[in-house]
Amino acid sequence: MWVEDLPNGKYKYCERYTDTKGKIRKVSVTLDKNSSRAQNEASRLLYNKIDEKREKQAMENDTSSVTFWEAQDKFLAVYNDTVKARTVTARISAKNKIREIIPEKTLLTEITSNYILSLLEKIYYVDNYSYPYMILIKSNISMVLDYAISKGYIENNPSSKVKIKKKIETFEQRQAKKDKYLELDELRDILKQLRIIDKPTALIIEFMALTGLRYGECVALQYKNINTDTIEITGSFDPITHSKTTPKNIHSERTIALSDRAKKILDERIELNSEMNIRSGKPENFIFVNRYNLPEYIETVNSRLRKVKSDKKLTTHIFRHTHIAMLTEVGIPLKAIMERVGHTNPNTTLSIYSHVTDKMSKNIVEKLNKIDL
């Protein structure tokens, strides 16, 4: 211990110590006097301070008491600042589901491969959630555990060893794949009904079916994105922030060639905007807008779709899938379809592509059977 004289006439008693990580630290206390009695008091106070600091540091270094919920909250606080508002909403939904199956007091050290496997098996095999949803939950758990590794809470990610086998596909599931898109006669009937219900909505839906755009991409189209025979996909309309944001991923930013009918739809929509006295023509103006000159909300379009009589569940996304099916039926290669619709992962495209090509193969046999040699 040493003593330093202070300008105000008081005395600063100092001591060095080694912390729990081996680093040299310094503590000090200030007293009015520099007497033997004061030195003894300072020594007592300094060593109490050192004990407190070492104890606090040891507790901070002890990660055995960190719960999964605590790690999840810390991860999301950082993660939510790096993604779009819509993704944040999806993560919160996954978080809520995870907290239904992982109790609040569960420690990170209790999250083992077997623990995760049991949770996912129950979700998929017992509760009959879909395989993609189960994978979504696994992914969200895994991200929290990866974050915990980076913070030094745990040493490895037990979810990396967890594998869940897909259930044998049932007839109903195969039928559900077919229900993901519309046959041409179904599409024609739906468009016919929509033109009566609401013409602007009918134009949006038909344009999506002819281009394969996501709904957000479609209503984010601006006049500056239209060329003579193509459109440029430069962003997506976020229904949470009500603003145009960057595309879903780098492959979503693309140029799409337009059919004659797709070009005609744009002309009709632009003419309709003029009739509705909506500001148009400026590069920044949106095309598929409501009466307030804002991109038409997806909730509004889906509510109009619910008025349509159909054997299939109608949402805006089924028309994107319908576009994939139509391209497949006319013989467009899978890679070209993926590039047109902006898919990076072939699974979604392939699920529709495979189903349509299976149907086409059956049609080939039927046609061959009709040939009389």
Structure description:
- By secondary structure, this protein is mainly α.
- It has three domains: 2-61, no CATH class; 68-167, DNA polymerase, domain 1 (Orthogonal Bundle); 177-366, Orthogonal Bundle (hpI Integrase, Chain A).
- It is 53% helix and 9% strand.
- The chain contains 14 helices and seven strands.
- It has helices at 36-61, 68-79, 85-101, 113-126, 131-150, 171-178, 184-197, 199-211, 215-219, 260-275, 298-305, 317-329, 334-341, 346-369, and strands at residues 2-5, 11-18, 24-31, 230-233, 236-238, 243-245, 254-257.
- The strands form three sheets. Strands 1-2-3 form a three-stranded antiparallel β-sheet, with helices on one face. The protein has a two-stranded antiparallel sheet with strand order 4-7. A two-stranded antiparallel sheet has the order 5-6.
- A hairpin with a 5-residue loop joins strand 2 (11-18) and strand 3 (24-31).
- The longest helix is centred in the N-terminal third of the chain and has 26 residues, at 36-61.
- GO terms for molecular function: DNA binding.
- Residues 177-366 form the Tyr recombinase domain.
- Belongs to the 'phage' integrase family.
